[in-house]
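call fold(seq) -> tokens
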Amino acid sequence: MLNILQMTTRYKNSRCLLLLLIFTLGMFINVNKANADVITLTLPSFKDGSHIYYYNLLNSALKSAGHTPNISLSAEMPQNRVIHELKRNRISLYWLLKTEERDKAFLSINVGLTSGLIGQRILLIPQGKQADFNGVQSLADFRALQKTAGFGSNWYDIKVWQANRLKYQVISGDWHKIYNMLSRGNRDIDYFSRGVIEISAEAKLHPELQIEQNLLLIYERDFVFYLSDEAQQYQQILEQALNQAKNNNLIVEMQRNHWRADFRQLQLDSRTIIRLKQP
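ret:
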């Protein structure tokens, strides 16, 4: 009788161990399967190549996190059309300056994409106008110039310039008109504030303008990804992958590699820094 009981107990223990092993193996398989998900996204593309960094960042971050990115690029489109395409699910996500209004309209990935570089602003000015800015050493000096900035409708920069009592003009419709308005010099626009990661490429496309040589205006803000409705299913995966890329310095490394020549040209360390108040 005792032998039968011992055998029964051993059988039950072995069965429990077997079930535990099967459960653990199943969990391992499911975790690996989740990490190997194919993430299918469509990004906008632009003729100036400004999409390339964000395309490469997504690819690298997802691969590093164990996923398989399947990222395609849309046909080239004007930037003022992108929001419309994002709402229609024609593109999956877009990098935009983080604002309360956009947070209400779209689900975002709450990870800064440029380490604040987009909030470091340099002026695009007409050729031959550098001397107008040479004496500026402070925000008060800059304000005293009474120069007028050009901005697109609903830009965050408008609130920043208001908070710092700086002159500006809002251009409705396609904001790319600002380049021509600035170069013509007859539309009451004296400069165009651009991020340090934008201005070099834009200056090449507009040789009638030049990069102001001395000033670096800074406000604390960054680009984040905003998602279409269909792409919201990837929100957690993307946030985890981008946070990992941030924590292991992948984002900073990719910035250095992508904009190395721009940083060298702009000489950021030698510029006069003007810190702008946040609205």
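DSSP finds ten helices and twelve strands in the chain.
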